[in-house]
Amino acid sequence: MTKKTFLGAMAVVTAVALTCGALVASNMGFKLNYPMSQPAAAPVDGTNTLALPDNRQTGLADAKNLMDDIGSASVQNLARYVKATAAFQTYTGRKNGGLAFPLVAGEGYIVKMFTTVNYVVVGSDDPALSYSLTQPGAAPVDGTNFFSYNYHQTAADSKGLMDDIGSASVQNLARYVQSTAAFQTYTGRKNGGLAFPLVPGQAYVVKMFTTVNYAPSHY
Fold this sequence. Notes:
Distance between the termini: 32 Å
Helix content: under 10%
Shape: globular
Number of helices: 3
Strand order of the largest sheet: 1-2-3-9-5
Order of helices and strands: HEEEEEHEEEEEEHEEEE
């Protein structure tokens, strides 16, 4: 898969240090410092993926709100993957820069930056929610889903996520690697790549064989 084609009241009980930042979590909610990086030496172009919680902080309803919350001067554009067209819808927040699309629980986003920002993500997961990971359909629908990884999800790596969804239903999983500006794919099958770790704040591509209404296993 190439970049082009894919293009509370908080009772804190746990503190987890992660490579992406510091996640302070409880069974009610969390606060995460998630770094989103600017362009650097080629091929690094400032592309980042972002997974937002099911229950976002107040006022975070659409792409404009998200851009403003990150810092609009630091963001080149935001994009969501539209399954029906198998393409990205982009919003720049500037003249003729597209419509501010709504933010949807379970949906991952691309955030392309001008400058590096440690974005503070606040919210909580909703264990009652499930997400429709859909199969291929009439062209160009190919079973690609851009999934917002849950912050209290028990799956720790791509193998765990594939097993939790149902491995027979999943073609492959992929993560965006900033240093190579490309996607790393895992199929869970022979010669299907290494199982990569899952990171809170990062969104993943989940390509399906069959439709699954996925309710993530939570801790």
